[in-house]
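Newbie here. three chains, one complex. Structure please?
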Amino acid sequence: MSAPNTTPNTTPATTTPARPRPPGFGLAGWAVLLPAAIYFLLPLIMTVTFSLWEGHGQYGFAAYRALLGRPELPTSLLLSLELAVATAAALLFLLLPAMIFMNLYAPRLRPAFEFIATLPFVVPAIALVAGLSALFTGPDWLIGSPFYLVIPYFFLALPYAYRALDVGLMALDLATLTEAAQSLGAGMGQVIRLVVLPNLRAALVGSLLLTLAVVIGEFTFANVLLFRTFAVFINQVGQHEATEAAALSVVSFLITWGAMLGVLLVGRGSAPVAGAR
Amino acid sequence: MAPRGENLIRARVRAPVAWLFIGAFFAVAAAFMVAPTAMLAVQSIYGDDGFTFAFIASLGDYRYRVAFENSLILSIASATVGMIAGGLIAHAVLRPGAPTWLRSAVTSFSAVAANFAGVPLAFAFIATLGSLGLLTTMLKNLGIDLYAAGFSLYSIPGLTLVYSYFQIPLMIIIITPAIQALRPAWREAADNLGASPGQYWRMVGLPVLAPSLLAGWILLFGSAFSAYATAYALTSGNIGLVTTEISNVLSGNVMEEPGTGAALSVGMIVVMVGVLLISTRLGRRAARWTPRR
Amino acid sequence: MTFDRRDLLKTGLGLAGAGLASASGLRGALAADGPALPASLIAAAKKEGQINVIGLPPDWANWGATITRFQALYGVKLDSANPDASSAEELQAIRSLKSQQRAPDVVDVGPSFALIGAKDKLLQPYKVATWKDIPDDVKSADGLWYGDYFGVESFAVNVGVAKTVPQTWADLKKPAYKGMIALNGNPLGASAAFGAVFAAALANGGSYDNIEPGVEFFGELAKLGNLNPSVATPASLIAGQTPVVINWDYLSLGYKKQAEGKADIQVLVPTGATPYGNFYCQGISAYAPHPANAKLWMEYVYSDEGQLAFLGGFAHPIRFNAMVAAGKIPDAVLKTLPPADAYKGVKFATQDQAAKAQKVVADMWPRVVKI
């Protein structure tokens, strides 16, 4: 919705006339983005350069060929992606409703939520996995399946997902929206589906991106419980190979970026800001 | 300050389904997070010969004191740098005049970069700015000797520089919805009243953003505080951090001391809870400008 | 365990050449059907059909070749989990997975962890046929764990970047090596790094009871700016970011082989000092889901063939002395190892000495080594 960009129709009693305000990107924007671009791209360029090095001044794709010949690459990647989707689903169906209801009906529970949302940061993964393994030793179909990882992953992604969703929920006037919808006859499910979720788009996409990033990058749990996820594979190659490890960094970067772009495009539809109209 | 209409909601409140969800969430959290954490607490005070404070006391050792100091300093520094830089970049990219492809590129790149931490990131930075790095050598040929001038990648400032690689993108992702929620009408109103951009930000923009900025800062602090692989790859733990010390005693090849590891973990929890408490207090003040509360 | 100079020289060891060790040197010494092991054990293992190992990187002491050969010989499926598992993680896997089908059957851990495993009842006893060849100070009397191979601390040098190769510990202090010298981890977390400190101690007036000179040595390296704190990996050695790495000899030689065609890596055991060595131990999990396979695996690893395989990975098998005495090691293989002189007088620290040294390092290192 475009703001009236022409001169305002109030007589300029103040000293300044209406400024011409096409809010262009301008110098200030580039002053911030250019150094940032250099900072972020330089290490990547180094990694790509090293991955192409074949020794004695020669450059080529030998490392990539060797890498793509490894069968664990697609299998581990597939497992990680499946785990990411499963974790995102768990967060969507367990965390988000709990947060919405907490914001609406039980704001006094906020500190408890905050505590749980920050706990995964402070309990080191290596200690948590030891505690989990000691407490839960069965049933075999659960503990033996890689999807057992969804449980700890739910909690590892929790801090990020919680913050992202919390920022989004804070931007909404949740009580008013809910009350308005309910006064029009909507049930709670409809309220969430038709009113809250569409307004949370940006936050949902953000939390999904972060969850995806956390799960694909998680290493400790998968490693200790001996599941072969993508991060475990990356670590293995990194410990023993030289140029292949760099090639794998580049490949995993590109794959993850593709997945993220996919999520973004699916979630596209600019975030309608509540009340902006 | 009760928002109007709260009574209307309250009337329908005891919807059991709401409590079902909240209850389920807490139950799962209790079983899979709180219980193992409680086990850690127990492990930190129970040794081979029974109840003992020795592990907690060992946290006062020089080695672990330095580790906690370093971890705190590094986390605060990288969280602050990430918050400021991330906020600026997010703002620059979300401005109405910015091209939309830029927005998608930056957001998706941020999601990936937020996860690039670990050995690949450390190696990339060592290859660039390490003592034998490419950039270091190039600058030396131009007459600028970074390491002679006192710069070192293997220091807390160096680590902060590397940590920013995943802290800044994290902030960008977190703050984006909040920046998008800043209503253009406010900016226009401020302009019409003759406010300069600086005044707008100081009196309108930043106060409104404050809770989200704080939330982002906490997340960045926690992310840095619990990070381990990057710092370890860069310094082998020569700059002691709590996480590298824990990995030495719990998952190393030289010694195994579960009691000390548990005590260090409990120390980490205490620090995080402290940070949370401080930020809750700050958050209450910052949320003055949020309409609902 | 001491090496008698006479034993080593008796077999006429040559100098380490630039030649590669490969199975070719060993093939002549291997029987076509593998070592002579009890048929009943092989049958029981075949019936179980699978064995789970953990913490065995393929390029570490030639485990890759051993794993392949074991599967080929006995037709069982071998699942190699988490090859880079630390000893602590291997014990943790036993604790976490106990008897699940995925749980490890055998572990390969450092001696201090073998002791913990025995104390925590994570291992079961088994004495292999060649038990008496294993020296007493590297095995537990009740058969819960026993050393399988050992190595000594060495320098791996990327000659293209470092230009000159340091020959002694004192050489490392030269200004030519500014920012070049790295370890493969934290001395309290990585056994090769801990060994490097001990080795430096032995070279600077310390002993197995006194590791302080070693810590001071690294403190001085840090002050001179020669110490590179980052973790040395094959990538950083070959790329030249950490051109001088102090690591186990079998790992250094493995990286040298890996770097062929890319970079010129030279490996040597520093002269002028007693070399510091350490060994790894095999043990069968008390909860092993495939016990017959676990026992068969042990028998294989400690057979002549299994022990020779270690030499293919430049690691010294634990039965080295006995096998040399019995003339079981081909000359071609011996030629690929560093000179015998380097291994003169290798002894291992006892676990008590190691534990005491760990405490000293824990306390001294952050005070003395400032990067």
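Moderator note: The radius of gyration of chain C is 20 Å. Residues 12 and 331 of chain C are 8 Å apart (CA to CA). Thread marked as resolved.
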